[in-house]
From TrEMBL:
This is Fatty acid metabolism regulator protein. Residues 13-73 form the HTH tetR-type domain. Residues 36-55 bind DNA. The keyword rRNA-binding does not apply. GO terms for molecular function: DNA-binding transcription factor activity; transcription cis-regulatory region binding. The lineage of its organism: Bacteria, Bacillati, Bacillota, Negativicutes, Selenomonadales. It comes from Mitsuokella jalaludinii. Keywords: DNA-binding, Transcription, Transcription regulation. PANTHER family: HTH-TYPE TRANSCRIPTIONAL REGULATOR BETI (PTHR30055:SF234), HTH-TYPE TRANSCRIPTIONAL REGULATOR RUTR (PTHR30055). It comes from the Bacteria.
Length: 203
């Protein structure tokens, strides 16, 4: 019975992954608004009804993918923390991983920016504007935690609050997304991040 349940759970995980992978392909190809649930499920080679066994809406898929970004950044930074890397290296790595993820999944950028904006607002107002039932992934708090740790360790300037500096990091992605400069998104983020780190790092 346990082996049977194990197979069933594995099948569920594979189906969920197939839906997520298909959604990424379709969103990248057609854009979020133009992609239907039917498009996603056709690409996943699964019945439309199966979609609602795993997700309530397309928006929930976006939130799930943003959660994947948070997990990816968090894991990389845990490994760097274990290696006792300084806070400014953690900030650079987190910024680089985020830029790569968003560049590879550009359909997520508007929601990423909106989630960052809402995280700075009162919880009730933020929840009113996010898709119903969605929870904003805790991305901003990752940067805030690193900044606070860096300030306590004497690596980061402490004459500005950590949450204010974290907002500056988020603004880098928006500025890069709308930049008219003849450089790619990831390079743009990297250059802006380097300048920001130079300004907040203690000599």
């Amino acid at each position: 019975m346990e082996e049977k349940m194990g197979r069933r759970e594995r099948k569920k995980l594979l189906s969920r992954k197939a839906i997520l992978d298909a959604a990424v392909r379709e969103f990248s190809r057609k854009g979020f608004k133009e992609t239907s649930v039917a498009d996603i499920m056709n690409a996943a080679d699964l019945g439309i009804g199966t979609f609602y066994n795993y997700f309530e809406s397309k928006e929930e898929i976006l939130m799930c993918l943003l959660g994947c970004l948070v997990d990816e950044v968090d894991k990389a930074l845990r490994d760097m923390r274990a290696a006792k890397r300084p806070s400014y290296e953690l900030l650079e790595a987190g910024s680089r991983i985020t830029a790569r993820f968003l560049d590879e999944n550009r359909f997520l950028l508007p929601l990423f920016l909106a989630a960052a904006e809402h995280s700075a607002k009162p919880q009730t107002e933020a929840h009113d504007k996010m898709p119903k039932g969605m929870v904003t992934p805790g991305f901003k708090s990752i940067f805030e935690d690193i900044l606070r740790e860096g300030q306590l360790a004497g690596e980061i300037r402490d004459d500005a609050p950590a949450d204010l500096i974290a907002e500056m990091f988020h603004s880098v992605y928006q500025a890069a997304a709308f930049s008219k400069l003849p450089i790619g998104f990831q390079e743009n983020v990297a250059l802006k991040t380097r300048l920001l780190l130079a300004g907040i790092r203690k000599a």
